[in-house]
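Its record is quoted verbatim for completeness.
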Amino acid sequence: MILIISHMVFGVTIVGNLFLVAGIVILGALVFISLGYLLISLVNSAGSGMGILQAVQLLQP
């Protein structure tokens, strides 16, 4: 979606194979989904889940 909008509005061109770009985007999404499942498996209650969520958000730039 971001690539389509950037192409239409700003004229950004993608150099290379579009299927490779789509594969990398899908792989990245799967990695972040599996990271979420990993963090969910570590919590025992909703309160501890909020603590882990805040720790993960603290590490983001």
Notes: Residues 18-42 form the longest helix (25 residues).
